[in-house]
Write a structure and sequence with these properties.
This protein is an alpha/beta fold. The protein has 23 helices and 15 strands. It starts with 11 loop residues before the first helix and ends with a helix. Bound molecules: 6-O-phosphono-beta-D-fructofuranose. Catalyzes the reversible isomerization of glucose-6-phosphate to fructose-6-phosphate.
């Protein structure tokens, strides 16, 4: 499905944008003064999100040309191709249908992919997950010694970890009392050791979450945890008269597209939840990969979460381009990256519960759009995926905001906040959430409008340090607000960034849904393993740097 791919640099809109950028004198102060309605005109609603784009370095002409660009690269056709299940992941010859994971039951028209009714499949698996979740939550499902499950440990990495962790952290207030989730991802043995430390094996359920069920880290950690479970149960005498297999069946379930490999691992296929190759790992938190969430947060919360995704999908699918928030934000990122020269993009949630959101977005955006060739295999001649990063406010304010305010680089930033806190707290008369929000509002104001030398002088500042205290302003930000961080709003936020990522990929003409760039490191790690274990022949075949580093390890190990 590459016939619609257009080199963006050959479009008229690209030429217009180049021209507009050459003539641009950013002046947010002036633009706001000249147009009282700027914020109103550049604020949009997408489902429950209020999105203000007005503090970006855009004029009406820039916005018009960005919309022309979308038309010239046939964004609407590409969007239709994705939603209808065409194989837009060309290098893997796959449909890209994470949007089908959140279509409500009975949604019309029906969707068939490769001859199979997708909605039936999705809802069948969901029903199975919810049934299992209810059994764990009620205590009907127990560990091998008959005790109720209190901790669910998700073993997975990348998309099989980052989504579940982020959502669990974000929606912790919705977790059932007496039930917690933990996560193991890294093959560093410290991760598993610290995670199972102090856990009671009799009340612990492990979920081995792996789309391929072939990922080294996940399968290694799964075996390590299986050994820990069996050793601990045996040590306590809890397994007397019972087979290992019985314990594994009670304490291990799996989530995968490769159910045959699950069985080979020793997990009963009855206790495995499937999904499909048209769900990319980084787009899978709303698939069976979210089983840990359905258990700990509950099926109702998970349903609300899926409903949020769907609301944003509908917005993206149907809203006209002029009001289509994911499309506008994606196009704005193109403006920032390809014309204004931004290399990174900060995401700054003013909500502690979203503290893993930037990390989640790193995989979503960077694994998707970190590509150097087009979907047709030609080298791109423009920059693609920017580096996404961030931390929650206000912590970031006391760490890296200095560079965003006064550094030499342009760093577009998304600020995210909610009108209502989960914890209403007073410090004397002061509402602490209001103080928190005052920081959120202050930051984007400072970044946009800065502080002139005259304003600094007017504060009586010594002339010698006036330059250091000047804020140039014109630092682009987007503000995203919602009433409250609910499961539905979180689903909307994730889907918003999924679609932004898609829009950028369409403009760049790349395949946003493969991830070949992770393969070489995996292959080399396996090839180097014998050298690390001391095989001198394999060591001798390495380049001098790698040989030297492994030599250092071999000389210093066991010390
Ligand atoms: O190595 C990258 C990757 O394939 C990601 O895209 C994926 O989310 C992660 O590994 C985990 O893969 P799996 O779910 O198959 O274990």
């Amino acid at each position: 499905m590459t016939e619609n791919i257009v080199d963006p640099t050959t479009t008229e809109a690209w030429a217009e944008l180049t021209q507009l950028n050459n003539n641009l004198t950013p002046d947010l102060r002036g633009w706001f003064e000249a147009d009282e309605k700027r914020a109103e005109k550049l604020s949009f609603t997408a489902a429950d999100l209020h999105v203000d784009l007005s503090k970006n370095l855009i004029t009406d002409s820039v916005l018009d040309s960005l919309k022309n660009l979308a038309a010239e690269v046939k964004l609407e056709d590409r969007r239709a191709a994705m939603f209808s299940g065409e194989h837009i992941n060309v290098t893997e010859d796959r449909a890209v249908l994470h949007t089908a994971l959140r279509r409500p039951k009975g949604y019309s028209p029906a969707l068939e992919v490769d001859g199979q009714d997708v909605d039936d499949d999705v809802h069948e698996v969901l029903a199975k997950i919810y049934d299992f979740a209810d059994r764990v939550r009620s205590g009907e499902w127990t560990g091998v010694t008959g005790k109720k499950i209190e901790t669910v440990v998700n073993i997975g990495i990348g998309g099989s970890d980052l989504g579940p962790v982020m959502v669990y952290e974000a929606l912790k207030p919705y977790a059932q009392e007496g039930l917690e989730a933990r996560f193991i991802s890294n093959i560093d043995p410290a991760d598993a050791a610290e995670t199972v430390k102090n856990l009671d094996p009799e009340t612990t359920l492990f979920i081995v979450a792996s789309k391929t069920f072939g990922t080294l880290e996940t399968l290694t950690n799964a075996r390590v945890c299986r050994d820990w479970l069996l050793d601990s149960l045996r040590k306590d005498g809890a397994l007397e008269g019972k087979e290992d297999a019985e314990a594994v069946a009670s304490h291990f379930i799996a989530v995968s597209t490769a159910l045959d490999k699950v069985e080979a691992f020793g997990i009963d296929p009855e206790n495995a939840f499937g999904f499909w190759n048209w769900v990319g790992g980084r787009y899978s938190v709303d698939s069976a990969i979210g089983t840990v969430l359905a258990i700990v947060l509950g099926p109702d919360t998970f349903e609300e979460f899926l409903g949020g995704f769907h609301a944003m999908d509908e917005h993206f699918r149907t809203a006209p381009l002029a009001e289509n928030v994911p499309a506008l934000m994606g196009l704005l990122n193109i403006w920032n990256v390809n014309f204004l020269g931004a290399h990174t993009h900060a995401v700054l949630p003013y909500d502690q519960y979203l503290h893993r959101f930037p990390a989640y977005l790193q995989q979503l955006t960077m694994e998707s759009n970190g590509k150097g060739v087009t979907a047709e295999g030609k080298p791109v001649i423009y920059n693609t995926g920017e580096v996404f990063w961030g931390e929650p406010g206000t912590n970031g304010q006391h760490a890296f905001y200095q560079l965003i305010h006064q550094g030499t680089r342009i760093i577009p930033a998304d600020f995210i906040a909610f009108a209502n806190p989960v914890h209403a707290t007073k410090d004397g008369e002061q509402d602490v959430h209001e103080l928190f929000l005052a920081n959120f509002f202050a930051q984007t104001k400072a970044l946009a409008f800065g502080k002139t030398a005259d304003e600094v002088r007017a504060e009586g500042t010594d002339e010698s340090i006036v330059p250091a205290r000047v804020f140039t302003g014109n630092r682009p930000t987007t503000s995203i607000m919602a009433e409250k961080l609910t499961p539905a709003v979180l689903g909307q936020l994730i889907a918003l960034y999924e679609h932004i990522t898609f829009v950028q990929g369409v403009v760049w003409g790349i395949d946003s849904f493969d991830q070949w760039g992770v393969e070489l490191g995996k292959q080399l790690a396996l090839a180097l393993a014998p050298a690390v274990a001391g095989d001198r022949d394999v060591l001798g075949q390495q380049d001098s740097s790698t040989r030297g580093l492994i030599d250092f390890y071999l000389k210093h190990r066991n010390k």
